[in-house]
Amino acid sequence: MERGKRLFEVSKVEKTEDGVVVRVVEEGVVKEMVEEIVNNCKTGQCSCMSEETKRKVSFIEVKILGGKPVIEIRGDVSKEEIEEAVSKSDKIVG
After folding, report:
1. Is the dihedral of CA 55, 57, 61, 64 positive or negative?
2. Exposed site from 17, 26, 56, 78, fewest CB < 10 Å?
3. Other CB atoms within 10 A of residue 54 CB
4. What is the number of other CB atoms lying within 10 angstroms of the CB of residue 17?
């Protein structure tokens, strides 16, 4: 993976029963960078999600599946809302 990629460039958003997951699909993504994005969301310091979307999220956590980070988001959120939020994140993850 080229250095300097943002989350939306290396991940795929998928709908789940409880919400959505943001699945990293490229190698070389730094888990701690993804965790930093999620921690900013948890503490309300992120500017990627609208206030309306933030209110819908009941749970957000980073897990490792298949050796790659996955962000699990639970709540009444749509795939499109989260895709939009991910596309606004400018933090470099790898």
Report:
1. negative
2. 17
3. 16
4. 5
